[in-house]
Amino acid sequence: GCGVSVQFPSLVHTLLSTHPIVLPPTDSTEPDSTDNPLDSLSFSSTVEIRSLSPLSTSTALMDSYNRLLETCHHLIPTFSPHVTHLLMNEVLSSHLIKTDKPVELRIHTLRLFVRVLRQTKADTSISAGILSVCLGLLNHPLEPLRNAGTRVWAALKQNYFSVCKQSDIAQLIDWTSQSLSHL
């Protein structure tokens, strides 16, 4: 209920920041010194999973993170405008610009962004950096990110550009001019 709503942006930030990243197994011919897959996890800013077996705990951990992110996606419409603005401005904006994240995590972030954008409409400001990242997705070499980019632009056109606040129009025109000059 109400107690969860103020913590929701922090929860999403934590999920996006610590989402497991599957690393390919090392080329080492030496067997691992442990049978516990959790011993090969690193919990710095992201979880690195080095030992992969089809039934390992690492796969279950990734599935859990993905299910939690899906749940967050479905919960967004239940939160107040204040919470969705916090989510957009303090969490998603910073994660959208991180282009070094794995494809699956970037798609989760983009889906959350679109969901919040649809709920907040033009009642939020979107930085030129985010617009540039979203524009770059339209020509991304990986099809899943291109498809996500297309969905993001459709949402931006419908929910932001068409009803943009007058104060954001100047920023939008400047960004458009700069983007066109780089073509």
Strand content: under 5%
Q: What is the distance, rounded to the nearest whole angstrom, between the alpha carbons of the first and last residues?
A: 48 Å
**Shape, principal axes of CA atoms:** globular
How many helices? The count is: 8
The run of helices and strands is HHEEEHHHHHH
Class computed from helices, strands and strand pairing: mainly alpha
Helical amount: 55-70%
Runs in which pLDDT lies below 50 for 5 or more consecutive residues are 28-55
Strand order of the largest sheet: 1-3-2
The biggest sheet amounts to: 3 strands, mixed
Query: If you compute it from the alpha carbons, what radius of gyration comes out, rounded to the nearest whole angstrom?
Result: 19 Å
- Average pLDDT confidence is 79
How many strands in all? 3
Please explain how this structure is put together.
The protein has helices spanning 2-5, 8-18, 57-75, 81-96, 103-120, 128-137, 143-159, 166-181, and strands spanning 20-22, 41-43, 47-49. It is globular and about 45 Å long. It is mainly alpha-helical. The chain is 61% helix and 5% strand. Helix 4 (81-96) packs antiparallel against helix 5 and helix 5 (103-120) runs parallel beside helix 7. It has a 3-stranded mixed sheet, covered by helices on one side. Strand 2 and strand 3 (47-49) form a beta hairpin.
